[in-house]
Design brief:
The structure holds two protein chains of two kinds.
Chain A: H1 3-20, H2 24-30, H3 34-42, H4 61-74, H5 76-93, H6 102-107, E1 113-115, E2 127-132, E3 135-144, E4 150-154, E5 160-163, E6 167-169, E7 183-191, E8 195-198, H7 202-207, H8 210-234, E9 236-237, E10 240-241, H9 246-271, H10 276-301, H11 313-325, H12 329-341
Parallel strand pairs in A: 1-4
Antiparallel strand pairs in A: 2-3, 3-7, 4-5, 5-8, 6-7, 9-10
Helix pairs in contact in A: 1-4, 4-5, 4-8, 4-9, 5-8, 8-9, 8-10, 8-11, 9-10, 10-11, 10-12
Chain B: H1 7-23, H2 26-35, H3 40-48, H4 57-70, H5 72-79, H6 85-91, H7 94-105, E1 111-114, E2 130-133, E3 139-149, E4 156-162, E5 176-182, E6 188-192, E7 204-214, E8 219-220, H8 226-262, H9 264-267, H10 270-298, H11 304-329, H12 331-334, H13 338-345, H14 355-369
Parallel strand pairs in B: 1-4
Antiparallel strand pairs in B: 2-3, 3-7, 4-5, 5-8, 6-7
Helix pairs in contact in B: 1-4, 3-5, 4-5, 4-8, 8-10, 8-11, 8-13, 10-11, 11-13, 11-14
Classes of the chains: A alpha+beta, B alpha+beta.
Chain lengths: 348, 373
């Protein structure tokens, strides 16, 4: 990694420990506070992928991966929020010149947006928005960041629309993870005059998320493992520190090694030419790893890990939620199989 | 070898399932989980309808399974009001049984079992609470306890504390005793623990004892035998934790089967079919391990190896099943009770002996069986 990216890693790491760690419980219980959104904005994180002329930080793929990884290590909710704003909302808006000025509002933390893609996740009841006469009307289920001011949503004509009015979130769903973000159905009754069609290729947009999602997964693993290692150095049982027991020490050392290798792989891919196969491989493995490591970290903490105050259980929930929101497992495994076999594979 | 349960037990299983499906509504599951409230009314109803029957262990075992299959938080709350009662049944005096056990069995009182401390979880022998004998024969208790089920709602708790220093490091488990402590006594305080990841309808608290005077008649069994009583107790309750775990695993399996019924594209994928096959196999294996251990226990011939194998494997099966079901059902699972089963399941690998402790027990007792000391 070059100096510029090292500095970025250090700056975001410091931001995560000073600005996120102390209010993690508040984020989980009450959502991401407005003041934090402002601070994320002033650091350039909310407009990470936006160009300079629109007030963004114009980060490259490695810089963006570092940002998400470091944020996720302290607060997966905040990392997912930054990811949603950048990888989906800002990237979609950039495709439509007439609405590019909205990017300044998003990167400035004045408004937030969301993008609906749950219908692509093998979800049986995503709901639907119908384009009827002069209206976009209907309900979408499982909308993440459903308190957003701006939605980019699919309609039954196969197109995506940007809407800023004529919607309201309904009661929240069960909330497995990313509790800093509202997760609920949203009802739409929007005049077509206020809806702007966004000419996006959703497959390309989703393909571009493999690397950032891997970065969040690696960040979750890093945050959970660091806490477990610290705890194992402090906590004693049977007259010894936890770190002195082989099953625990070996398990954490193995996880540390895997984390280091995944991290290196992430940096290499992010700096190299686009390679969908490698990005997909990394995502599938990183997500599984985040789940396994967060589970290990919780187990190391015992009963304390089960309590919100210790800041461990959220990694376990968030890793699982990331694996759900991170892509369509079956489709992606089939895609990866076909890329590896270089012909149709894994379809029976 | 007969792998069937008596007909009346299977009938009871059906009755409990009907009860859980009717009473553990989605609204109630969510309300008690979100608000971290103990469901007093549901506990009362379960008692009045005869859902909980402590006089027949197989009846209790399948009831626990079926209650936790629908909702572990409400399910556990329905029967855990008698937590610790086995200690009184086995080691309590007739007076203690009459005064403390019978009201619990009648569903009138709630009991708790206080062993774990802030600095001693799996390592029971590492506890620091002390009971010091006074000239009048009573004891003064000082110390604190952590993660105590029913801690803030119990009428009394059974407390493990040191009555003398350990004779040596190797014999740290010596000189511990148990006593019945009434929660209304001066010097006893409870602080309900909030923010648990799962089983949030159950009550969990931190207890503090400051110069609590315990009359000599409240000492359970013999002075100095507390550690052995606790281990005996765990050999019983681990079977019931295994039953909770099987219930959770079965509940997760139910959810994936439900999605497979509704979504033919989903169920036509061979990877999904294999996942369901693996899950069904592991749930059944956990159940068989548990029933074997239970069968020995219920014939008063418990085998700690089989008991710990059952608890360890069933707990891991619960988290495996909940994780796997959630992973493959995706958002369909995430916006249903499956999300809660996932959060609830993890505690099974931690309480009543973590998986690591179970493995230690299995190794030591197994090697003993193999003739290796």
């Amino acid at each position: 990694m070059d100096e510029e990216h090292r500095v970025l890693e250090s700056v975001v790491g410091e931001f995560a420990s000073k600005e996120l760690e102390p209010i993690n419980k508040q984020i989980e219980l009450e959502g991401i506070p407005k003041e934090l959104k402002k601070r994320l904005s002033s650091q350039g994180f909310l407009g990470a992928l936006a160009p300079y002329d629109l007030g963004g930080a114009s980060l490259d793929r490695l810089g963006y991966s570092i940002l998400l990884k470091q944020l996720a290590s302290a607060s997966p909710s905040v990392a997912f929020y930054v990811f949603l704003e950048n990888s989906f909302v800002i990237k979609s808006i950039l495709l439509k010149n007439e609405v590019r000025e909205k990017i300044g509002l998003i990167s400035g933390g004045e408004i937030s947006g969301t993008f609906y893609y749950s219908h692509l996740l093998n979800f049986l009841e995503p709901g639907e928005i119908k384009k009827i006469d002069s209206k976009l009307t209907g309900k979408l289920n499982a909308v993440i960041n459903s308190e957003a001011n701006l939605f980019i949503v699919p309609a039954d004509d196969g197109k995506f629309y940007l809407v800023e009015s004529g919607f309201h979130p309904l009661d929240e769903h069960e909330k497995l993870g990313f509790r800093g973000l509202r997760f609920s159905p949203v009802k739409f009754d929007t005049s077509i005059k206020d809806a702007i069609e966004i000419p996006l290729n959703v497959d390309e947009l989703i393909d571009d998320t493999h690397l950032p999602i891997s970065a969040i997964a690696i960040g979750i693993a890093q945050g959970a493992l660091n806490k477990a290692i610290e705890y194992a150095k402090e906590r004693s049982a049977f007259l010894h520190k936890l770190k002195d027991f082989q099953p625990l020490a070996f398990g954490m050392a193995q996880a540390y090694s895997q984390l280091d290798i995944l991290n290196e792989y992430l940096i290499n891919i992010a700096q190299g030419e686009r390679d969908i196969k490698k990005e997909l491989m990394l995502k599938i493995i990183s997500i599984d790893f985040a789940r396994d490591v967060s589970k290990l970290a919780l187990q190391v903490h015992g009963g304390y890990g089960y309590l919100m105050d210790f800041g461990i259980e959220k990694y376990y929930r968030d890793a699982m939620f990331l694996s759900i929101l991170g892509g369509n497992h079956l489709d992606e495994k089939m895609k990866l199989s076909s890329l590896i076999f270089q012909e149709k594979a894994g379809w029976i | 070898m007969d792998f069937t349960l008596p007909e009346e037990i299977e009938e009871k299983r059906k009755k409990v399932r009907e009860f859980a499906l009717k009473e553990f509504t989605e609204e109630r599951k969510r309300y008690f989980d979100e608000n971290e409230k103990y469901p007093f009314e549901i506990r009362k109803l379960a008692y009045e309808l005869g859902i909980i029957n402590f006089s027949n262990p197989w009846d209790l075992l399948v009831s626990i399974e079926e209650l936790c299959r629908v909702d572990p938080g409400l399910g556990i709350s329905s029967f855990v009001y008698a937590f610790g009662s086995e200690i009184l049944m086995l080691f309590g005096s007739d007076e203690q049984k009459k005064k403390y056990l019978e009201p619990v069995q009648r569903g009138e009182k709630i009991m708790g079992f206080a062993v774990t401390e802030p600095v001693a979880g799996s390592d029971v022998a590492g506890i620091a609470s002390k009971m010091e004998k006074q000239p009048d024969g009573s004891y003064i208790l000082n110390g604190s306890k952590m993660f105590i089920t029913n801690g803030s709602i119990a009428d009394y708790v059974l407390v493990l504390a040191r009555t003398a220093p350990p004779p040596s490091e190797e014999k740290r488990h010596h000189n511990m005793s148990m006593a019945i402590v009434e929660m209304k006594w001066p010097g006893v305080s409870a602080n309900k623990l909030k923010g648990k990841m799962g089983v949030r309808a159950t009550d969990t608290a931190e207890l503090v004892f400051e110069n609590v005077r315990i009359p000599p008649e409240n000492i359970i069994g013999e002075i100095g035998k507390g550690f052995y009583y606790v281990m005996t107790f765990f050999n019983i309750t681990r079977i019931y934790v295994a039953a909770m775990s099987i219930g959770i695993a079965q509940g997760a399996l139910d959810m994936i089967v439900e999605k497979a019924k509704k979504d033919k594209k989903f169920s036509s994928q061979e990877s999904i079919q294999f996942t369901i096959a693996e899950m069904a196999t592991r749930v059944d294996a956990a159940r068989l391990l548990t029933y074997r251990a239970a069968s020995l226990l219920f014939q008063f011939n418990p085998d700690p190896v089989f008991t710990s194998m059952a608890k360890y494997f069933a707990a891991e099966t619960a988290t495996y099943a909940a994780e796997t079901a959630l992973k493959v059902t995706g958002l369909d699972g995430a916006i249903t009770s499956l999300e809660r089963l996932f959060r609830d399941s993890k505690i099974m690998e931690i309480w009543e002996g973590s998986s690591e402790i179970e493995k230690l027990v299995i190794y030591r007792m197994f090697m003993k069986k193999m003739g290796v000391e």
